[in-house]
Amino acid sequence: MPIGYGMSCPVLTGVGVGTTVFVWIDAAIFLARFQGFQNGVALFLVNGVLLRVPCSQIRAIFT
Fold first, then answer.
1. pTM of the predicted model, to two decimals?
2. What domains are defined for the chain?
3. What is the pLDDT of residue 38?
4. In DSSP terms, which residues pair with 60 in a beta bridge?
5. What span, in angstroms and rounded, lies between the C-alpha atoms of 41 and 1?
6. What would the pLDDT profile of 13-57 be if each residue is shown by its tens digit?
7. 33 pairs with which residues across the strands?
8. What DSSP assignment string belongs to 1-63?
9. Alpha carbon of 52 to those of 1, 27, 47: distances in Å?
């Protein structure tokens, strides 16, 4: 189920650092560990690689 509607990045509301989530961006869904949020960009760790995703491109977060 998607979570969150907040202020700085609505889709990330309720997601804590270190939480493993499914991320839906445009045409892809992937499993990642949330690392934080900075200047409109969400940081996710995917297979040891830090992925920077602009908040505006995230469609939903699933737990």
1. 0.80
2. 10-62 (2.30.30)
3. 82
4. 24
5. 22
6. 888 889 999 999 988 999 999 998 888 889 999 999 999 999 889
7. 20, 45
8. -B----SSSGGGTTPPTT-EEEEEETTEEEEEEEEEEETTEEEEEETTEEEEEEGGGEEEEE-
9. 23, 16, 14
